Amino acid sequence: MDSIEFIGAITGTTAILMPVMIVWIVMHYTTKRREAKTLLNEESDALEILLNAADRMEKRIDSLEKILDAEDANWKDKAQ
């Protein structure tokens, strides 16, 4: 096999493998990105706990504001 045939074989192989490699790389990193976007079970549980705590806090704040409104309707103006 002389050098021209060798170069031709390399070029042909590269022409076939290059599109395959490009598709593989795109699909690989697309899958990795999707995996990174999903929450783990532990993260999902922690998020649920935080959301419940935020809901309880919001109810407490609403209750406190109602109490303060009953005691002094202008308390918001005084607080600023």
List the helices and strands and how they pair.
Blueprint: H1 3-37, H2 41-71, H3 75-79
Features:
single chain, 80 residues, mainly alpha, 2 domains
What does this structure look like?
The protein has 80 residues and is an all-alpha fold. The protein has two domains: 1-38; 39-80. Helices cover 89% and strands 0% of the residues. It contains three helices and no strands. It has helices at residues 3-37, 41-71, 75-79. The longest helix has 35 residues, at 3-37.
Q: Assess the beta-strand content as a share of residues.
A: under 5%
Helix fraction, binned, reads over 70%
- How many structural units, i.e. domains? 2
Order of helices and strands: HHH
Structure summary:
This protein has 80 residues and is mostly helical.
